[in-house]
Amino acid sequence: MSAINLDRRVVGEAASTHEATPKPATNYLNHETTIASWLLTLDHKRIGLLYLVGISLMFVLGGAFAGLIRLELMTPKGDLLTGDVYNKSFTAHGVVMIFLFLIPSIPAVLGNFLLPIMIGTKDVAFPRLNLLSFYVYAAGGVFLALALLLGGVDTGWTFYTPLSSTYANGNVMVAALGVFVIGFSSILTGLNFVVTIHRMRAPGMTWFRMPLFVWAMYATSLIQILGTPVVAITIALVGFERFLGVGIFDPRLGGDPILFQHLFWFYSHPAVYIMILPSLGVASELVSTFSRKGVFGYHIIACSSIAIAIFGFVVWAHHMFTSGLSQYAAMVFSVLTFSVAIPSGIKVFSWLATMYKGSVSLASPMIFFFGFIGLFTIGGMTGLFLSTLGTDIHLHDTYFVVAHFHYIMVGGAIMGFMGGIHYWWPKITGRMYNETLAKISAALIFVGFNFTFFPQFFLGYMGMPRRYHEYPEELQVLNVLSTVGASVLAIGYLTPGIYLPFSFFFGKKAPKNPWGATTLEWTECESPPSPHNFDHNPPVYDHVYDYSTLNKEAAVVSH
Amino acid sequence: MSAHNSANVEAHAGHPHHEPASLVVYFSTFSALMILTILTIWAGMQDFGALNTPIALGIASFKAVLVVLFFMHVLHSSTLTKLTIFASMYFLGILMVFTLADYLSRGWTGQ
Amino acid sequence: MSATNTKSDTAQSHDNHGHHPSLAHHFVSLEQQHEANILGMWMFLVTEVLFFGGLFTAYTVYRLKFNTMFQEASNQLDITLGCLNTVVLILSSLTMAMAVRSAQIGKTKQILNYLGATAILGLMFLGVKYFEWKHDFEIHLVPKANFCWDYAKERRKEADHHEKDKPFVSKLIGKFVGHHEEHAPPSAAEIAKDHKNPESQQARIFFVLYFAMTGIHALHMIIGFGLIAAVAYWASRGTYGPEYYTPVEVLGLYWHFVDIVWIFLFPLLYLLGAHLGAGH
Ligand code: HEM
Ligand SMILES: [Cu+2]
Question: Does B6 contact C at CB distance below 8 Å?
């Protein structure tokens, strides 16, 4: 069998040497250079880059609000921001980070760029829809920006009724419209990916030959398709209620506010998996490449992504344990929530087993992976504290919850995103970045993150509620620690914002496969890829993570 | 998974498109839908007590199945299409059943 | 399995299928393109199921809470018109199915005829809806605008009394051209008092859901008209035939879905209180 593989490799080699002619390579970055060729592009790779610009801006914006929040919390008294401005800040922070940054981050940037290449096709199934999805996202962003400029919204990212529908001052409807619109962008991306994976795979690319990142994107897309419409209609109902003054959720008019929470969390719990699943997919790629070893438990990791997507839909009411939910339902949802931890645990153990006896190299993406796995694990484990009914009564709506989900969404999801960006940067831009700076940045993020959020577990446990701008004096030490950590974290995030763009212009040219990875984007595509990705049908191997062929090839080349 | 694979292979292999369905199928489907519409109105006029809604929904579901199978050609569609429809129903079911699990058990205090 | 792909065949992707004008560059064959588009539509319909599903869930919850009032409120709707619309819409599904079939067998002229018929039936549906909504407005059943449950109940009783002995056809015609006697609209004070009444509140939730559901359904039909126009335009230029009729089929799927939604809305909204009898 390996002989066959070697044969194929030779065919592939022949093709690529034939192509490596002296004339300057055209690639997707330089084959057209007008502004219109970027803004109206149908190329999935360019659309990915458009998204990268969009979400980077949003990350900075959301981060600025986070800075405001942390500054206010340096001191127990509300001396920097009034209560109202504070409420508006954390709402803006949450809405921007979740809807404009995290949900589109990996799927719309890395997913768009890589998914078609990884399954060996020229583009996603619906390129126009893909571009439309970007502009819908941008339109949603405009609405949210408008809501901010008009004076902000103070409901929190959850838009709970009747606060949002009756009492909240501010521009709830403009913001809600923004979220509604962005939802459709997310649906379009998910729909596109599902169809692409089902219908566009290269000949021979069976389901269990797909890279795990593609599996993760598939699971993510399913959630986007199944969950997002529910939150869309829910927001529309809030809109009816607010505009028309009719009571759907308003208890004074006979409505039921808890129904809103059910509908909202039916989407929004699965949505937290929209945020983390792609990172889990990135992690599988990283751990394999930098351990030079096939992923341990490939099949079970693939299936656990799907399992997470499905289980994710039956746990939502763990956000509602103290809302007046029936005791029976609370019990059922508590038990089911524990089950979600199983597929997540399977993944973590499989990654560890992948490294075991692998030849682990400490390149910067791998450093991000190490950060990711630690933080994700802590986040997941503390989720179990919260799923325990009795404990949650105490911890609900405290900083413990804040710490929990930041460990997952920032520690897990964003670390994974950073790892992915660093890993695929040479492919995307054709340049190498400064490895030392990247490692420093990874370390700063890890340290800064833990200083920021670990104290919040204690704060929450001691009873500090979330969403207040004042707190008792005895909690100041931990809060200051958290703010200091946040400053380190900010530096950690800003550093790549400097050396990555720098490398784009001045970095060393990247070889085709700098990390010695096995997936198609490395073995069959130039860095950066040509406009149509492949010049020939890419060969597909029995095992995606088969380093034996690569090692043999390396041996052949070095002779 | 094998269903997916074969669907994919089929997509590449360039099989001929489906034969158009015969007129008989369309007109019988239409007639059945009309009869069921009359049936559901008649049933709606009667009072079957607790069964009113199940009967109405049962007839509506049957009508929907007819439309899906014959007008939307799902009878002859790939397993994937059938799975897709099933998935949409399944997750809608989750939404309804788990929400109702709360509302219907509000009174149970466990004491 | 291992020998699946030894040849790196550029030939396949460029030779056999590359020349059909409707084949996009990133697909290998028309068949692949067709399958992708159909699946895309089905995925979209999944999102639609859950979009309407949120509404149906809200309906179910309130229906359980306010069962009695929901039946009474439902009894205010006009079953005859609801039934008429059901027939019209199912008929339009039939013509849509025929349009797809005409494309499959390559009869361009017929595609246009059937699409035209579908559009006309769709317009008829919306026309009937317009008269229904107009009537709802006249008897003060529109939340926010003028909802007054007591008033609406009175009007309904009166009308039933008046029309009791009229033959069916003149009743039906009366729904569209009939002149309603003038009534003093309820005063602001009456409306305010009505709004405090829990029965009115519960009936109003029914009507909020009724307008939301039928309104969003109607919006889908309006979008459908746009799609029909686009497909008809391409059909008139002879784009479709046995080789390539994907957009017609995709449009068909969409239209049938909208039909299915109505098949559920009809019993849930109109027939819910039918057993209570007229003028209850
Ligand atoms: C092992 C898996 C997980 C478990 C068992 C779990 C459990 C929980 C529970 C029970 C709560 C409710 C706490 C409360 O409000 O009292 C919660 C909140 C939260 N979780 Fe998780 N979680 C898990 C994974 C995740 C993931 C993967 C994410 C995001 C990527 C996430 C994000 C959140 C967020 C955002 C909240 C708070 C939402 C809010 O109230 O604003 N969780 N989690
Ligand atoms: Cu959750």
Answer: no
Q: Cα–Cα distance between C116 and C129 in angstroms, integer?
A: 20
Q: How far apart are CA A446 and CA A186, in angstroms?
A: 29
Q: How far apart are CA A267 and CA A274, in angstroms?
A: 10
Which residues, at least 6 apart from C164, have a Cβ–Cβ distance to it below 8 Å? Answer: none
CA distance A201 to A205: 6
Instruction: Kindly state the greatest CA–CA separation across chain A.
Output: 81
Sign of CA dihedral A371, A373, A376, A382: negative
pLDDT band at B10 (very low <50, low <70, confident <90, very high): very low
Sign of the torsion formed by the C-alpha atoms of C72, C76, C78 and C82: negative
- The minimum CA-CA distance between A403 and chain B, rounded to whole Å, is 28
Tell which phi-psi region holds residue A43, choosing left (phi > 0), alpha (psi between -120 and 50) or beta.
beta
C264 contacts B30? CB cut-off 8 A: no
pLDDT digits (tens, 9 = 90+) for B26-57: 999 999 999 999 999 999 999 888 899 999 99
Q: Which of A262, A276, A124 is nearest to C43 (CA)?
A: A124
What does CATH list as the number for A36-558? 1.20.210.10
Q: For residue C77, how far is its CA from the centre of ligand 1 (angstroms)?
A: 44
The top-level CATH class assigned to C63-276 is mainly alpha
Q: What is the ipTM of this complex?
A: 0.91
End-to-end CA distance of chain C: 71
Residue showing tokens 């080789």: C243
Dist. CA A426–CA A431, nearest whole Å: 5
- 8 Å CB contact between A217 and A111: yes
pTM: 0.91
Of the candidates C134, C125, C137, the residue with the CA atom closest to the CA atom of residue C219: C125
Does residue C233 belong to the interface with chain B, where contact is any CB pair within 8 Å? no
Q: Using one digit for the tens of pLDDT, what is the confidence trace for C138-164?
A: 888 888 778 888 888 888 888 777 777
pLDDT in tens, C96-120: 999 999 999 999 899 999 999 999 9
Asked if A451 contacts A528 with a C-beta cutoff of 8 angstroms, the reply is no
Provide the pairing of β-strand A431-432 with A508-509: antiparallel
Return the pLDDT at C156: 81
Q: Which residue of B has its CA nearest to C37?
A: B11
Other Cβ atoms less than 10 A from the Cβ of C8: the count is: 19
> Which residue type sits at A48?
G
* Residue A457: pLDDT over 80: yes
CB-defined contacts A:B, below 8 A: 57
Cα angle for residues A110, A116, A121 (degrees, 5° grid): 160
Mean pLDDT of A95-111: 96
Which helix (H) or strand (E) segment holds residue A431: the answer is strand A431-432
For residue C96, count other CB atoms closer than 10 A to its CB.
29
Identify the nearest ligand to the CA of A320 by its number.
1
d(CA C276, CA A98): 49
Per the listing, tokens 């099933």 go with B86
